[in-house]
Amino acid sequence: MARILLLLLSAACLHTGNSAGYQKKYDYAVDQPAVLSGVQGGSIEIPFSFYFPWELANDRPMSIAWRWKHFHGEFIYNSTQPFIHEHFKGRLIMNWTQGQTSGVLRILNLKENDQATYFSRVFLQTTEGMKLWQSIPGTQLIIHGTKRIWVLCVAALFPSSFPCCSPQPYFFKSFSTTLGSPSIIPSAVPTTGLEDTRGQRNPSLLNLGAMVGMVVSKVVVIIPLYGWVIFLWSKQRPAEERLNPSKAPQC
């Protein structure tokens, strides 16, 4: 179940963030989403696109590079050399081909220290010479650990019970909507024998059925989550007591 949840969260993370980019103040720019969230151990895709006014000079006029951490940070990828940073060896895939003005940078097996800001950089050989520019704000990548994911799942399903967790609203939007939307509940209620009694349906019974279905669906999900959170907490507690003997309970 943990693996299925990880895949669902990775898919939800993929669609988070503001992908509108900057308004077109110039004739050339690079657009990237402002923020993306990933799950430790999962994968993430950072989409990018660019536009320009110049005429290209030859058959292979484009080159793409990526930096991380800050605007003048280290290069982690270069399509010309080709080059991949040691930190991302075996975990970086560039989905882009020569001549395209959009693509995707995919990072596999996300690690905690992958959390940073990523900047795409474009090089062009034009009839007016070499042109290059880079995304200014970049894309901030937020990595959530497995333990925090379980806590945020519980908080997303029962926010009033966990006000201190404060999960990001964009992170679980699609996940919590799928689980908790009343619109998907009636389809699970059997309708056999109701075709000719349309005007005789009792709205209160339908509402009750929808409510029961919603409660049951949440209970089915929440019980394993609670159990897993308690297990992780109990497993972590002895380690904390070993590191802080003064805080251990005295007999």
TrEMBL record:
SUPFAM superfamilies: Immunoglobulin. The chain crosses the membrane at residues 208-233. Gene3D superfamilies: Immunoglobulins. It is a single-pass type I membrane protein. InterPro entries: Ig-like_dom_sf (IPR036179), Ig-like_fold (IPR013783), Immunoregulatory_rcpt-like (IPR051694). This is Paired immunoglobin like type 2 receptor beta 2 like 2. It comes from Rattus norvegicus. Keywords: Glycoprotein, Membrane, Signal, Transmembrane, Transmembrane helix. One of its GO terms (cellular component) is plasma membrane. Its main location: membrane. The keyword Glycoprotein applies.
